[in-house]
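Quick one: structure tokens for this chain, please?
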Amino acid sequence: MKNINWDDFQKVELRIGTIIEVNDFPEAKNPAFILKVDFGKEIGIKKSSAQITELYNAKTLIGKQVMAVINFPPKQIGPIMSECLVTGFHREDGAVVLVTPDSEVPNGTKLA
């Protein structure tokens, strides 16, 4: 693992957003959802492809706050342009557990 300095870390825009829409993504190579995440007035709503179908469904995701990287360049994933990277941890079985705050915070808040 290579060390980074504080300036490197400061470049990564890790922000909280609320999932407001979830759609199936049948064109994806691996099972995935297309998420729309609200990052507040300043940043707005961004789309993301997320391979989180093993532990989550549309009903459990709507209204969930998640941490995402919002300053990667947009990436074409099949028919959609992914505009942010929703973060999570892989379990031993490969399922992804989302990174979420344990208390609600305003959308768009940057990781401190």
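The mean pLDDT is 96.
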